[in-house]
């Protein structure tokens, strides 16, 4: 058994991955704010996560052997962050659709979210350390 | 994931905006330059220059595959070309000028100072936005180093 391989910690990891990816995507959008015909991208993760956690799994394979594949089980539990590009909207004359104010706001929000996740991961580790230390 | 990838993206934009700023400076500095180039023994005034930005993609097969599998970002922006403004030169009546033609007209560069100033503000603001993005990325990495402390 590994210490930090619980679903909660894996969720934190995946969310941090998503936030880091989102930071890169936003940095790229901001970098291309003056590029003609550039279309902005964004990261979808929380929405996928919510959708996945809200509807129950219709079918979960019953495993009788540890070598069996998971069907609808833990292996594909968490969604991966997805990058989608917004091709439809037009913001400027040069067909670029980067709204710098929106991107800056998203970046600030994303940064806070990341900080929260980091803190939470730290708490998880600290709890584990308390358990390891025991009654010393 | 490479740790400093977000830096690279913002850095490309800083480079590009700085080059844009250099070009604007060159345009403003040469706003009155009548001897930009010698063509067939005649002086042609300085021609206004502009930068062309384009996204910096690496559309290799691997990249596209990874885009679809995990989602990756672009690689920032680059200056594809520096092009010359094809709009006509300004004609100014100044018979005493050494580069005046036989009718007393001098061709002046097609640089519009107002346009350059507006462009300069735009470049400055974009530069600042990218510095902010860079600092945010730095905050991410600094914070990530605190995990488990």
Keywords:
heterodimer; A: 136 residues; mainly alpha; 3 helices; 2 strands; B: 149 residues; two-stranded antiparallel sheet
Low-confidence stretches of chain B: none
Sheet/helix structural class of chain B: alpha+beta
Outline type of chain B: elongated
Number of strands of chain A: 2
Percent strand of chain A equals: 5-15%
Determine the fraction of residues in helical runs of chain B and give it as a percent range. 40-55%
Largest beta sheet: strand ordering of chain B? 1-2
Query: Could you say which overall geometry of chain A the principal axes of the C-alpha atoms support?
Result: flat
Structural class by secondary-structure content of chain A: mainly alpha
Give the percentage of residues in beta strands of chain B.
15-25%
Secondary-structure element order of chain B, as H and E? HEEEHEEEH
Order of strands across the widest beta sheet of chain A?
Answer: 1-2
Helicity level of chain A, as a percent range? 40-55%
Put simply, the count of helices of chain A is 3
User: How widely separated are the two ends of chain A?
Assistant: 24 Å
Question: What is the β-strand count of chain B?
Answer: 6
Unreliable stretches of chain A: none
Largest sheet of chain B: 2 strands, antiparallel
- C-alpha termini separation of chain B: 22 Å
Could you explain the architecture of this structure?
The complex is a heterodimer of chains A (136) and B (149). Chain A has helices at 7-31, 46-54, 100-133, and strands at residues 41-44, 82-85. Chain A is mainly α. Chain A has one domain (7-133). Chain A has a two-stranded antiparallel ribbon with strand order 1-2. In chain A, helix 1 (7-31) runs antiparallel to helix 3. Chain B is of the alpha+beta class and 149 residues long. Chain B has three helices and six strands, in the order H-E-E-E-H-E-E-E-H. In chain B, helix 1 packs antiparallel against helix 3. The A-B interface holds A 16-17, 19-21, 23-28, 30-36, 38, 41, 43, 80-83, 100, 104, 107-108, 111, 114-115, 118, 121-122, 125 and B 1, 5-6, 9-10, 12-13, 16-17, 20, 52-55, 67, 70-77, 122, 126, 129-130, 132-134, 136-137, 139-140, 143-144, 146-149.
